[in-house]
Structure formats: C-alpha cells, structure tokens
Amino acid sequence: MKTKLILAILLTVMSVAVFAKGNTEVVYDSTSVFKVFYTGKAPANVKISIFNAKGKKIFSETIKSKEGFVRPYNMNDMAEGTYKFEINDGNGVEVYEFDYSLPKVANNVNMKVQKMNENKFFLMLSTTEKTTVEIKIVNDEGTEVYKTTEELTSQFSQIFNLNAVDSKEYTFSIYADNKLIKSTSL
User: Which domains are seen in the chain, by residue range?
Assistant: First the structure.
C-alpha cells in the first residue's frame, strides 16, 4: 500500500513541475505555459525577466501587485532549451531555471539544420505523411528574416545564404497547422 502511494505521488510530480521559493511559485504543466504565482504582504512593483540559455534577456515586464497575482507566460514560440525566470519584488530576487521542450504534436516531421559556414545553413526536413509546413527564420533580435510555406511529401532540403543579414544566431522554426512543431537555434 505504501509503495502504491509513493508511486502515485511520483507520477503526479512528473506531470507537473512546480518551482517554489519565498513569495513566488512557478508552475509548468508541459503545455508551453508557465504560470508565476506571486504573493506579497504589501504592494510591490514586481519585475519578471526571462533569459535564454546564453543569458540574453528575451522578455521583461513589471507588474504592480497589491497582494499577489498569477501571470501565465506562453513559451509556445520559443526554441527548446534552458530558460531562467528572474523575479524581483524589491525585497529580493528569486531565480528559477528550467529546461523547456516543445509539446508533442501528432505531426511526424523531422528537422535537421546544419551550419555550413558563418552565414550559410543547410535545412533538411522529412516526413512520413503529406504535410504542409511553414518555415520561419528569425535573427538574434527576434526579427523574421525568412518565411515560406512548403508541401512535404517525404523529404525537403534547402541551403540558406544569410550573408545579407547581420546576426550572431538564427532560429529555424517549423510550423504545421499554425503550431510550432520543431525549432532550433544556431
């Protein structure tokens, strides 16, 4: 009986990740949405910043809190990787680091992006079923530098020469039915 109870608790913990410290709790339920729960005893300006794996701030906002709030953050358009939430209420900073992976979708599209040289990339896509995909490339400032739609029947490949774009990093994203299915940053 005790073993079954421990197993049930472990399964519950595996399906929902909760990070809690001080006045803040961050909940991630594997649907690309993170929720920040903040409780305070006095009004505060709470600054929430999100950083990518390279330490670059990708989002920041300040929320005026009377005694607390719940704020969802949709990560659906973000590439897989390690992200950090930093929550500062003026009385201290709480930091939460997590590994984000894209939610699984029914589409069976495989993607590989290979860097050929400084600004030249080779994109390969494959699928086992006929699928229409949208290919987007954004630079390190989040500006879209390329977008097209392709009909996949088995394999697709293309070389991208991005010499005209000034960027240290590019994110290649594949969408099907307006949902992000694969993303990688180089």
Answer: 2-100 (2.60.40.3080), 109-185 (2.60.40.2150)
